Amino acid sequence: MGPWFVRAPLLLLSMLGLISGAWLRAPAVWLSLAVLVAVRVFVEWPLPDNHIYLLAYWCLGVAMALRFADPASQLARTSRLLLGLVFAFAVLWKAALSPDYRDGRFFAVTLLTDDRFSDVVQLIGGLTDAQLRENREYLTPLPEGAELLAPPVLHAPPRFRLLVLVATWGTLAIEALAAGLWLAPLTRRLLVARHAVILLFCLTTYAFAPVAGFGWLVIVLALVTCLPDDRLLRALYIATYAMVLLYSEVPWASLALSGLG
Amino acid sequence: MRERSWAALPAVVLAVVAATQIVMTEVQMLSPWKGGGFGMFSTLDERPFRYVRMFVRAPERSEELAVPPSLEDLAASAEILPSDRQLERLARAVVAREHRRGQPADQVRIDVWRVEFAPGSLAPRDHLLRRYEFRAAP
Q1: How many CB atoms lie within 10 A of CB B18?
Q2: Quick check: pTM over 0.90?
Q3: Distance between CA atoms of residues B126 and A120, nearest Å
Q4: Which of helix, strand or coil describes residue B111?
Q5: Beta strand extents in chain B (DSSP E only)
């Protein structure tokens, strides 16, 4: 949450918002939150993750919506545009600006080298612990000119290749669908598809991706676009929020792996 | 201004920042993962596949330094955005740390490397992104 001069007032304002409805609905409180988050981005530049930027935009959106007679619909408009653009830029990076995404290198190397994915790679990708270790040796560059007498080999069984393929194109497909559905003006019937894609995205992505904070923010942005009579949808978003929490706290892949082993 | 326009303002800010980030990845080698452009989980052009190597020189001294915990954030910033400003901040901090430890440090060289993986075979290869030389004031 940034340096002390950001963290302390941020926590204090959040606390006041939670205990008092008047503070919660005060545009000045949300504007202050937006400024504090923006200060954090500025002070820690270029380290902050993208969801910190999104949090600043969101707080700014709430502050502005509260100035109008119907803040709920105003905020829903802001959230729809923010969500659509987040997914549109994510798709732009994956589909057009990153050649190492399109040919599968990104997920292949990330799944093999990032410790946070090692249980999933063994559980779903079918690699053994020893193969994973050898793959990591293979993916470590040698000093210039050096050669090993017995160089490690890359183990990529069909299940692992399938995992890479599904992760690469599945992620791109769902994000492209989300960008299209949230940016396009839709009929009420298609609104269901808009929410379904966010729920599907969160339930699948955050089971693997270790970035729950982004997931929670996406859920909140989508939740505020629900109409007052969308009780089932609201309940689904809250359940998904809890599910992302469980994904981040329960090492499900590791437990499943031990259960199988 | 109409209500609808106000509702779009945060999205306009997002789009401007994200477009700027794309330009910065080209012009200043900013990692696509950072900077508000939503390029995370799209490329391997990010830490730990970007890393710095730091070398200190002084009369009768020339050695490579490991990144100490106290300089991790500055090193990470230089890896993510290897601009003159970030590299100078890191170099100055290295000199200050060496002087605090009673070690001479007249010059600092910082190399920012990127590991690239070949399509298909995933064979890794180091590629020098940026070399920065800093001379401490006498």
Answers
A1: 23
A2: yes
A3: 28
A4: strand
A5: 50-58, 61-65, 107-117, 124-135
Taking CA atoms, B69 is separated from A59, B74, B75, B94, B97, in Å, by 33, 10, 10, 12, 12
The reply to whether B23 touches chain A by the CB within 8 Å rule is no
Calpha distance A199→B5 (Å, rounded): 28
DSSP assignment letter at A142:
P
CA–CA min distance A98, chain B (Å): 6
ipTM over 0.90: yes
Alpha helices in chain A (DSSP H): 4-19, 21-24, 27-44, 50-65, 71-92, 99-102, 105-113, 118-123, 129-138, 158-183, 188-208, 212-223, 231-249, 252-260
Say whether B42 sits in a helix, a strand or coil: coil
∠ Cα B116 A211 A71 (to 5°): 130
Distance CA A88, CA A258 (A): 39
* Interface test with chain A among B41, B72, B80, B117, by most A beta carbons within 10 Å: B41
**Rounded to whole angstroms, how far apart are CA atoms B47 and B32?**
11
Q: Is the minimum CB–CB distance between B68 and chain A shorter than 8 Å?
A: no
**CA separation for the pair A209, A199 (Å, rounded):** 15
**Tens digit of pLDDT per residue, chain A (261 long)?**
789 999 999 999 999 999 999 999 999 999 999 999 999 999 999 999 999 999 999 999 999 999 998 999 999 999 999 999 999 999 999 999 999 999 999 999 999 999 989 999 999 999 999 999 999 999 998 877 777 777 888 999 999 999 999 999 999 999 999 999 999 987 777 889 999 999 999 999 999 888 899 999 999 999 999 988 899 999 999 999 999 999 999 988 888 888 876
